[in-house]
Every structure is written in C-alpha cells, then in structure tokens.
Amino acid sequence: AKSSGRDAACLFDVSIDQVVHERQMLEQHLKSALEHQEFTLLYQPKIDAQTGQMVGVEALLRWYNPELGQVPPSRFIPVAEETGLIKPIGTWVLQQACAQWSAWRDAGYGHWVMAINLSAVQLADPGLLDLLRSYIVQYRCEPSQLELEITESHLMHNSHLAVGTLQAIKELGVMLSIDDFGTGYSSLAYLKRFPIDKLKIDQSFVRDMLDDPADMAIVRATIALGHELGLRLVGEGVENQGQAQQLTALGCEELQGYFFARPLDSNSLVQWAGVQRH
Ligand code: C2E
Ligand code: CA
Ligand code: CA
Ligand code: CA
Q: EAL domain location, by residue (predicted)?
C-alpha cells in the first residue's frame, strides 16, 4: 500500500509522456497530410422531419494516414486548432465542399444544402470572408445552399469578433447554425446578438431523451425557444425511430443520425438518395 502512491505518480508520468508523444506524432503527420492528400470528406444526410426527404448534408472530415491509420476528428481537430494547421485544412474543407456542391448541382441535386463545420480559428481569420466569397464565385455556388456550423463555445470565446464576421457571412446569403446547442458556456443573450438561422440540438440530449425526463425537458425547451426566436431546429444523433418520432412531434424541422444514414462518400450518398426516393 505504501508504494502505491509512488507507482501512481510513476504511471502518471508515463501517461503524460505518452500524451505528449502522441500529440507530437499527430502534429508531425498532420503537417504533411494535405500535400499527401490524406483527407477526404464524408457527407451525412439531413432529413426533413415532415416529408422524410433528404434536404441536405453535413460534410465531415476524415483523415487516413498510412502509419497512424484512420484518425478520428475528435483526436486531430484539437491538435490542428492548437498548431494553426486548422487554417489550411479548413480552407481545403471549404473548397472541397463547394466543389462537391457544384458537382451535385450539375448532376441535378442543387436543392441539397451543404453544411460545413467551421472552427473558431477560421472564424477569427479576417481572410475567411474573401475565401468564402471566392469559392462561391469559382464554383458558382448558390450561397443559400451553403450553411456554416459553428459550436457555441467557439462563439463565446470570440463573441466580439464573431458578430461582425457572422453578419458579413449572412449578407453573402450563407446560412448559419449553432452546433452542439446546449453544451457551450452560453448565455442565451447570444442568441439575440448572432444572426443565426438554425440550432442543432446536441446529440447528448437526443441520446437519452426517451429515458431521461431532464433530457426531454431540455430538448422540448430548446425547440420552443428556437421557434420563439424564429429559428429552425435540427436534431442530431438520431439513432432510432422513437427519437425521430418524438423530435418530429415536438416540431423539430430536421433530423440527422445513424437511424437515417451514417456519413457517406459522395457516390454512396447519391446512390442512397436515389434509393430513398423510390
Ligand atoms: P459534429 O459537428 O457535432 O458532428 C457530428 C458527429 O456525430 C460526427 O462525428 C458524426 O459522424 C457523428 N454522428 C452522426 N450521427 C450520429 C449518431 O446517430 N450517433 C452517434 N453516436 N454519432 C453520430 P465525427 O465525424 O467523428 O466528427 C466529430 C466532430 O469533429 C464534429 O462534431 C465536428 O466538431 C468535428 N469536425 C468534423 N469535420 C470537421 C471539419 O471539417 N471541420 C471542423 N472544424 N471540425 C470538424
Ligand atoms: Ca457539426
Ligand atoms: Ca454537433
Ligand atoms: Ca442524461
């Protein structure tokens, strides 16, 4: 028992070492990931709760490195944000998503909305607006068919900067949504200050809403609040029919989750959408 304290301290040191080491590994491989074309985008359908039709997709970044294998975004996005690598990576995502939307439009799917996740680092970048504008022009995108998803905590940390940038994005005609709503360090007053179109109810609330009255209350209140403010609601992480039905009954406009489809590559998505329609 006496040595356990020392053992614990020792274990602790080792694990810190491992964390630092893993981080350095990630960072090192992340630096060359763009030039080695190791990134791809997958697209997860968003469903109109009333009609059951697919109304758009969320673009989700994937990284495959030959040495590390498939690395989930929850592991590499924070490293990319800390090192500044999220800037070129985020630019690639923006360009790739605009190019893909354009290809879908040419194939007759111009009614699909492309939602793109935006990091706080990108939002704080004064060059973001020009970048967005230039891709819209280059790929002849319909601004109203593009949507940017921003997490609440990101908004809070940049609130002074964010209002101006978000306003300018709005003026381009691009839609804005707050991601993971309910999990940030939010003041509800921000909902009034930011020119947003949609709230995405965080999947942690959706997951337990049928079993946990507290989660149900949060979902219900979020939908009511969003509607009072004239916003559309998106339920994320819908994994079963019960959740889909409950969210629909509460008036949630859009649904997204494994119950409908996992994130798909562009070919599989077009195929999936075709099957859904018939
Ligand atoms: P997010 O924006 O909240 O994206 C939703 C995440 O939930 C995705 O994880 C998606 O695959 C997963 N998901 C979707 N439906 C279900 C479901 O029914 N059940 C469960 N359990 N999960 C579901 P993913 O792709 O691993 O992405 C994780 C996070 O990484 C994203 O969370 C987003 O914050 C970030 N991310 C992904 N792509 C990008 C990107 O291009 N740029 C930036 N800045 N962040 C990104
Ligand atoms: Ca998102
Ligand atoms: Ca989310
Ligand atoms: Ca819970």
A: 23-277
Q: Which ligand is nearest to the CA of 182?
A: 3
| Distance between CA atoms of residues 194 and 203, nearest Å | 22
- The model's pLDDT over 137-169, given as tens digits with 9 standing for 90+, comes to 999 999 999 999 998 776 666 667 778 899 999
CA-CA distance, 109 to 177, in Å (whole number)? 22
Nearest CA to ligand 1 atom 13: 237
Residue nearest to atom 45 of ligand 1 (CA): 117
Residue nearest to atom 12 of ligand 1 (CA): 237
pLDDT at position 2: 44
Q: Does residue 263 carry a pLDDT above 90?
A: yes
ipTM: 0.97
Report the nearest atom of ligand 1 relative to the CA of 118. 44
Query: In the numeric block, which tokens belong to residue 45?
Result: 């359908």
Measured in angstroms, how far is the CA atom of residue 61 from the centroid of ligand 1?
Answer: 8
pLDDT confidence bin for 6, thresholds 50/70/90: low
